[in-house]
Amino acid sequence: MTDVDLFVIGGGSGGVRAARIAATHGARVAIAEDDRLGGTCVIRGCVPKKLMVYASEFAHAFADAAGFGWTVAGARHDWAALIAAKDREIARLSGLYRANLEKAGVTIHAARAQLLDAHTVLVGEQRVRARHVLIATGGRPKVPAIPGGERFITSDQAFHLPALPGHVVIVGGGYIGVEFAHIFRGLGAAVTLVHKGAHVLPGFDDDLRAAVQDGLARAGVTLRPGGVPRALRADGDRLALELDGEPVIADLAMAATGRAPATAGLGLAAAGVEVDARGAIVVDDWSRTSVPHIYAVGDVTGRVALTPVAIREGHAFADTVFGGKPIQVVHDLIATAVFAQPAAATVGLTEATARERGHAVRIFQTRFRPMRHTLSGRDEPVFLKLVVDAATDRVLGVHMVAPDAPEIVQAAAIAVTMGATKADFDRTFAVHPTVAEELVLLR
């Protein structure tokens, strides 16, 4: 006997989608979340981050306005007003998640849950027997294991700072480090970005990485490539980050060194669920764990840590198990964006990966000054690159750095997913004058 057909542990994007869709298929569903519904993306990730990106971009707009005849005098920023407005929007979105679950008939437990055995979930003081279990607990920020590491904040705390710091040092050159470097700098703080490699954004196309790094430097971010943190110590009322070279003295130190799967305390061993060396839950192509009726989706699996991927995995799980529509999620051709300033976006293979996989490639790329900066005077070129298979003419990858790159690459991803060739791009009429027209004009 079971109390529910599905118990979902974790109320983030993947878990909420799975719960709601399973319920619409007629399953008895319960979900547990010990924080607000919405998970990392809605509460402390993509959504508040993008709102703060928008806020920080106004500094560029004010500076550019003079070139178009505008006078913007006396502009100032109110940090507290931004945080309050952001918090209101996050509360609204979290409320929508709850309302949609309730409308679908999902039972919501505002408590932490853990597995007691393969079918029993302890949620608060209550034991619930479940026919199937889905684990969607996401990830947690990591902090460098160095003396004084407890002095770092992470992105979780960055959204709730009482005031804008004067100088921020950020450790980590991935999505979070790059985006917050621009946010803090755009709102008026001095920023030092410490990253291990020669360029930021490991895993991205090398030319795109160089273009993003140039953008950071133009924005006034001090870059410390090859920096390895040794200790973080107090220096009066400030902090000193010890590196191999000159230490960085700052008012705030932020760790943006990745995230770890949030599997601690879930009772996975008691249920017989296998995890790998990183602590990520091991799953097959159907998101099924080592226990046949227990599944996992999203960041906790260590596959692709992106919100749209978690949502797709959660939906596919619900359709497969409860909807009679078996669906496997193929983790190829995933478009993604880094909300740097200007933003970077990409879909498909990098040039290096294409060559490693044996493709003979043709490269089409350009760097140019967009029309919006002919009058503003801003030194901010657009970068665009296509990676094309020389034998089939198929477009293998699109890589772009431009203010509207995420919007443009989202549309281009449809063509790449459909298998479009360079000839297909070439025979597409351009929309003039736009930045996006370069996609179909490269020769």
Description of the structure:
This protein is of the alpha/beta class and 443 residues long. It has three domains: 200 residues, FAD/NAD(P)-binding domain, CATH 3.50.50.60; 109 residues, 3-Layer(bba) Sandwich (FAD/NAD(P)-binding domain), CATH 3.50.50; 100 residues, 2-Layer Sandwich (Enolase-like, domain 1). 33% of the residues lie in helices and 23% in strands. It has 14 helices and 21 strands. Strands 1, 2, 3, 4, 5, 6 and 16 form a seven-stranded mixed β-sheet that branches. It has a five-stranded antiparallel β-sheet with strand order 17-18-21-20-19, sandwiched between helices. α6 links the parallel β8 and β9. α1 packs parallel to α9 and α3 crosses α6. It is globular. The model has no long low-confidence stretch (mean pLDDT 97).
Q: Roughly what fraction of the amino acids lie in strands?
A: 15-25%
- The rounded Rg comes to 23 Å
Known CATH architecture of the largest domain:
3-Layer(bba) Sandwich
CATH fold group of the largest domain: FAD/NAD(P)-binding domain
**How many structural domains in the coordinates?**
3
Tally of strands:
21
Indicate the overall shape. Answer: globular
Mean pLDDT equals: 97
Under CATH, the homologous superfamily of the largest domain reads: FAD/NAD(P)-binding domain
Taking the sheet with the most strands, its summary is: 7 strands, mixed
Q: End-to-end span in angstroms?
A: 66 Å
Weakly predicted, low-confidence segments: none
> How helix-rich are the residues, as a percent range?
25-40%
CATH C-level class of the largest domain: Alpha Beta
Q: Give the class from helix and strand content and strand pairing.
A: alpha/beta
Number of helices: 14
